[in-house]
Amino acid sequence: MKIDLHDTKKAAKLLLGKEIEFNNCKGIIVETEAYLYNDPSCHAYKGKTPRNAPMFEKAGTVYVYFTYGMYFCMNIVTNSEGVGEAVLIRGIKPTGGIEEMAERRKQTKITNLCSGPGKLCQAFGIDKNCNNTFLGEKIKINDIGYKVGKIVSCHRIGIHEEKPKNLRFYIEKEKNFVSKT
DNA sequence: CGTAAGATGAAG
DNA sequence: TTCATCTTACGG
User: Which window residues (161-180, chain A) lie with Cβ within 7 Å of strand B?
Assistant: First the structure.
């Protein structure tokens, strides 16, 4: 799967509607956020550390990090090697392996399986073993010709910033599968 | 419905 | 102590 991942903001929108496949589970990406190198809330803002090192790899690297003591979040690294930028996957609409996801999530409602970055990693069974791997090695992204339709952009979630940058994107018609608040 | 707090660990 | 989170418990 070839997607132009140089421009992080464009990549965030391009990833919407793509199919993600991992661990015998599939889903459509319906919500993303862009993190730019000059953004104080970007993990890579203050430079390279052991934790965020994958963000400085070449575009298409997968960056999985552990947060709040119990959850993983998945990013797709963008821009050029040496530039710390990435797109956070925030929401997925499940299309395959749903029973496995429900088992791992201990939830039955399909809209509550992947509606949030921590949830979708748990549902897919994504953990730090996927960190610093390349798209296609473990996690795959496919273009299945899904028609995205209207894309909504607004402020990001869980980030306090004075002047909101509209770097969160989601598919309007799939908002049932998007994180709340 | 809504809001509040707890779980739980890595980094600064 | 903060954090790119989520779930559960409790009040109305």
Answer: none
